[in-house]
Structure formats: structure tokens, C-alpha cells
Amino acid sequence: MSNSVEVVTPVARIVGGHPMVSNPVIDDKTRQPKMQQDGVTPRTDTYIGLAIPKGAETDWRQTEWGAKIAEVAIRDWPGGQSTMPGFAWKITDGDSQVPNQKGIAPASREGYPGHWIVNAKTEWGVQCFHVGKYDPIEQITDPKAIKPGDFVRVLLDVKGNGSTQTSGIYINPKKLELHQAGPLIVLDGGTSAADAFGGVGVVQQPQQQAIASGPTTPATGFANGPAPGMAGPAPAGPAPIEVRRIHPDGTAYTEAQLKAASWPDAQIAALPIAQ
Fold first, then answer.
1. What is the DSSP track for the chain?
2. Side-chain half-sphere exposure of 171, counting CA atoms within 13 A
3. pTM, 2 dp
4. Which end of the chain is more exposed for a tag (fewer CB within 10 A), N or C?
């Protein structure tokens, strides 16, 4: 299995979840909590939805952070799966008008328009720090110090998911820097993780080491400031044949559009194919 790659986001806004709150992992089919390997301890995960402002790029892969994520997908899925519809990128266009399985279009959600939405989750906790205060003893311990709507930078751990059912990538948050407070975003009862990931699991990560004090590099920390400017466009892959399906609202969308709007594969397959 390939090694993961660390990516530091630009300053982004928290538009879903909370970096210091864990929630039960629910089985999509049974709607019951999933258990750890011992069969008795419930599994939990932590989810963060990050809204990264768009620039001059027309695709998130044209940004520096996006190009790094795309490179991981190409490396871990050398068969070209990342160019096909349905690849689980965990990244959504915040301006998309395509409704998810609950009938909610990304563009209708607070904080989404004008942004790329990165959906990250982990089964381990996320270490959180204020800007410039990276010593382990300065780690944020009060969840109330961070809220949806705040502006942050996040150290992400990215790798292929190795799935035999849905090819894609894992985007796991490791460390968070609270950049500044922002207007509160009232979330919808903590269902964002299920909407974002459609039941796809998360890679198991070893317990993360505490951030060492002092200056760090962009690959491992935050002290050197935001990442540089945009990278060039990623190489274009072969154009896939796009299957269009009829949404319950009567509109025909491609399977890729529905997947980007967080529709699970099973629900996409149940929709009628547009002629």
C-alpha cells in the first residue's frame, strides 16, 4: 500500500462538522452503529467540511493543493480510475446546483458558493492550535474555542482508499490551525459527514505525534504561512462515456454530477437512465 501524502490547505472556512467532536459511525444499510474489531466498542469519526475560496482556476486540480491530491489519486489508482465518473474525490464544487440525495444543492448551503468544498474525516482526533502557538502544551482543549464558520488551515493526510467497490481517496485531517473567528454557521444536526461520504469508510491512521515547537515546513506544519500560488492544469485523461440519470426533480444529471453531489452509488444506480 502506498504511503500517504501530507497537504496543507489554504485558509478555509469550516462549513461542516467540528474538528474536536466525534460522532458514531452508522451503517448505511442497517442504520445501526458500526463496531470496532472487538465487536462491542462503537466506532466514531471526526468530520470537517472545509470551504476553500476559488481563484482564477476552473477546476480545483489547477490549484497547488488540488494538484497534490490529484497526483495521489493517479499514483494509487494507476489504471485511470480517477478519470472515470463516480471516483470518490471527497471534493465538491460549492457552486453546483445538482441536489444531493436529500434534495439539497451545494450552492444552497451557507458558505459553499464561490468555494471548493473539501470533506475530510478521521477515526483519530484532530490536534488543534492557535496561530503561532504550536507547542504541545498550547494545544486547544476546549471544543467551544472553535465553531462552524471559523477560518482555519488544516494539515491533511491523503491516500488512495484501496476499495474494491468504490475507487477514491481518503482525506484525513491531522492538525488544524485556528486562523481567525468567523460568523457562526448553524449546521443540520451533524449529518454532514454522511452526506459528504455516502458511507465510504476512512483509512486507519496511527496515533499522530504532537506538533513540535518552533518553525516548520509547509509539508509538516503551519509556521511558514499559506501555500504558494496555483499550479498549472493537471493533464487531461481520456473522456469517459457519461451516463445521465433522471433526478426525482425531473432533471437529467450525469453520474459524475450526482456523485459530486454526494449521492451514494446504490441510489444513483436506482435512478432511471435518461434516453
1. -PPPEEEE--SEEEEEE-TT--EEPBPTTT-SB-B-TTSSSBPEEEEEEEEEEP-S-SSGGGSHHHHHHHHHHHHH-TTTGGGSTT-B--EEETT-----TTS--GGGSTT-TTEEEEEEEESS--EEEETT--SGGG----GGG--TT-EEEEEEEEEE---SSS-BEEEEEEEEEEEE-------STT-HHHHHHTT------PPPPPPPSS---TTT-STT-S--SPPPPPPP-PPPPPPEEE-TTS-EEEHHHHHHTT--HHHHHHSPBP-
2. 28
3. 0.72
4. C
The CA–CA distances, whole Å, from 101 to 86, 109, 116, 227, 251 equal 15, 14, 20, 35, 14
Q: Which domain holds residue 26?
A: 5-215
For 58, the grid coordinates are 476552473
The pLDDT tens digits for 6-32 are 999 999 999 999 999 988 888 777 777
Provide mean pLDDT across the span 240-250. Answer: 72
Q: Are 180 and 12 in contact (CB under 8 A)?
A: no
Q: How many domains does the chain have?
A: 1
Instruction: Tell me, yes or no, whether 166 lies in a domain.
Output: yes
Residue 91 backbone dihedrals phi, psi, to 5 degrees: -130, 130
Residue 273 resides in a domain: no
Contact between 240 and 167 (Cβ < 8 Å): no
